[in-house]
Structure formats: structure tokens, C-alpha cells
Amino acid sequence: MSILHDLLLAFIAILPVVNPFSKPPIFLSITEGVAPDEQRRQAFKACLYAFIILIVSLLAGTFILAFFAITLPALQIAGGLIIARTGFQMLNPQKEHAQSVHEEQEARDKNDISFVPLAMPLLSGPGAIAVMINLATDATAITDWIVTALASAAVCVITYFVLVESLSLVRFLGVNGMNALSKLMGFLLLSLAIQFIINGTTSAITHLIATLNAAS
Prior knowledge:
This protein is mainly alpha-helical. Helices cover 84% and strands 0% of the residues. The longest helix is centred in the C-terminal third of the chain and has 50 residues, at 166-215. The radius of gyration is 18 Å and the shape is elongated.
């Protein structure tokens, strides 16, 4: 039960930041005129790349923090601010994660959009990387790493099917349905961001108090 509980917690932490449910309109826009088989191929490659980025962030996260001398509280606060910004955008009734005209045109002109912009930054952007590094710092046993990797894989599999069925989802849910689903993800994302900031601030204050007590 403990492993299932940890798996669920990791899944809930990763799903909102990857947020596949806000991607169908963007995916359809930048793959307009592309054959269905090629759309599926691009979706599969994008999800594979996103999974690789998440796993690399998980495995190398603690080394990156140590190399740049970044403390975990600093990462949590910075990551929380980035995620909060995305959450606020998703709660906004305007088009979330909107790309500029130049960005959309550049994506349409590319033969392969699976890595940029799909995998990076749309699926595995700074917020997702920050979450994976934070999960890495909480890992104390090999099972923790495996559980987080499995949760990442599950999110990427869901993302693949969401992208492949983008047209059906948009038709079925409509604009209002997509907005409602995106706002739900935005609320979860904002809650996660606030928890990040709380954890980072609490850790920083605790460390500061301990340092002051040791110096006195």
C-alpha cells in the first residue's frame, strides 16, 4: 500500500505540471494539414522525449543543485513561482499557454516538432523539471526512484493518448469543456505551487534560525 500511495502522490505531482489536457488545441494548431499517421508519430516522439527529460531531471537533479550551489529551498521557491504563473494563466479565461504568431508559424514550418516545441517546453518545461528535482531530493531508497519513474511514464502515456485523440476531445468537450478541464488542472497546479513555496520558505527560515542559534 505504501508503494501505491507514493505512486499516486508522484503521479498527482507530475500530471498537473505536464498538463496534457491543455495541449490538444496547440497540438492541432501546429500540426494542421499533417497526416494522421504523422501526427501520431510526432505525438509518440514528443512523449518519449518528454519522458527522457523528466527522467534525466530526476536522476541528475541533485547533482545539478550541488554543481550550481543551489539550495533545495531556493529551488522550491523558484519552481513554485514558475508553476504559480502557469497556474494563474490556466485559471485565466483567455487562451492559456498561447504561442505568438511567429512561434506558431515556426512550429508549422518545421518538419519535426516533437522535441521543440512539444516536448520542450510544452510538456516538460521548467515547472516539470523543478518538480522532478524536488521529487529526487525526497528519494531515500531505490523504490522511490522507481515509483517516480513509473509515475512519469504513466503521465506520458496519458499525454500520448490525449494528443492522438486531440480532435475528438476538442469536438466532444467543446471550448467550454476544455476551459473547465484546464481550469481544474490550473487550480491543482496553483495549489502545488503554493505548497512548494511554503516548503521552501519554511526550510529557509528553519535553516536561518539554526544558523543564528549556532552563532550566538
